[in-house]
Design a protein that fits this description.
Elements: E1 2-3, E2 9-11, H1 15-24, E3 28-33, E4 40-44, H2 46-63, E5 69-75, H3 80-95, E6 99-105, H4 114-131, E7 134-143, E8 146-153
Parallel strand pairs: 1-4, 5-6
Antiparallel strand pairs: 1-2, 3-4, 6-8, 7-8
């Protein structure tokens, strides 16, 4: 099956006849679907075709941004304004499409008050939820002296 340079279906023909037809147009014969029955070939300028394909691949790579994991670290003695500032920064990360790892770090004797760390994390997630819809990727859990959770922006 051969498709002409203007997109018209020229029907079935031998490969020799198709090559001669392409040469008469000063173009190339390119097999678009070699596994089809019969194979589909198109008469086109192969250099231009390859350039357009590379251009579209570059545009796709440019638009496909990998999500990153950003980290916000809190301490149980954090002030309300500082908490809101960190929440504001987290919202920026979420708006950019990144995930945010929220970590509450306890030091020394603060380990005796783990409930304060849990309360701070819940309060921080609440402040985030006021600003933007979020989903919790990984529920809060303890790992050593750190209470952490991962959140991302809720998909529409």
């Amino acid at each position: 099956m051969v498709i002409g340079p203007d997109g018209n279906n020229l029907g079935r023909m031998s490969s020799r006849a198709a090559n001669e037809l392409a040469a008469s147009y000063s173009l190339d014969l390119f097999c678009v679907a070699p596994n089809a029955n019969p194979p589909v070939c198109k008469i086109l300028n192969y250099g231009k075709y390859r350039f357009e394909k590379q251009k579209s691949e570059r545009a796709q790579r440019k638009n496909a941004k990998a999500t990153q994991l950003k980290e916000i670290q809190l301490h149980i003695s954090i002030g309300e304004h500082d908490l809101r500032t960190k929440a504001k920064q987290s919202v920026k990360f979420l708006e950019d499409g990144d995930k945010v790892n929220i970590r509450v770090v306890l030091k020394g004797r603060e380990m005796a008050h783990q409930d304060l760390g849990e309360e701070l994390l819940k309060r921080f997630v609440g402040v985030l939820a006021e600003s933007t819809p979020i989903s919790i990727e990984r529920p809060p859990f303890w790992e050593g002296k750190v209470y952490s959770s991962i959140v991302s922006k809720k998909k529409k």
